[in-house]
Amino acid sequence: DAGVIQSPRHEVTEMGQEVTLRCKPISGHDYLFWYRQTMMRGLELLIYFNNNVPIDDSGMPEDRFSAKMPNASFSTLKIQPSEPRDSAVYFCASRLTGTPYEQYFGPGTRLTVT
Amino acid sequence: RKEVEQDPGPFNVPEGATVAFNCTYSNSASQSFFWYRQDCRKEPKLLMSVYSSGNEDGRFTAQLNRASQYISLLIRDSKLSDSATYLCAVNMKGNFNKFYFGSGTKLNVKP
User: Fold this and answer.
1) Shortest CB distance from B97 goes to which of A44, A48, A91?
2) Which one of A62, A83, B71, B101 counts the least CB within 10 Å of its CB?
């Protein structure tokens, strides 16, 4: 079975540009999580969805960040405008209700903002 | 103060050695505890949950000390393939969706 799929795997962009990261969760999983990992701050939860509805976005750093989940098989994380401090690896993860501790992470998107 | 803190290492050990990492957490309301493994430039993967009574999975033993608010991971008979970064994670009572991760401890097992 396919795992969590993220695209692109690498993104290099200039400051001020819009960046869109994409995620396809494991089929049938009803929870989706967006994380950011940096050397300084480690792995941080940004937002999570349940049945396509955002439940907790308290980790979203600021208004420049937004996330959507238009259907059960697709989510986006958008940064507009991007800044150099947004450079990080962004992971998407999914899980199935009833398996609370088993989150499956995607391979991540490595974002560099110059 | 960070919710979860770990010694970043690296821990450099020879094959066959026993190595242990600790992870401290700041919130006494933390309820569930986990160890994740992350290989270089890869995603984190769940290694094991940490139960109150301690638990073992092959060469790996995890323990929880609530009084001192830390969890530990012991790896016996280290293999080259154990080289990775080990992240601890906790979540709070009432919200098992919100994980707080440590920054990880890097382990290098040398031949």
Assistant:
1) A48
2) A62
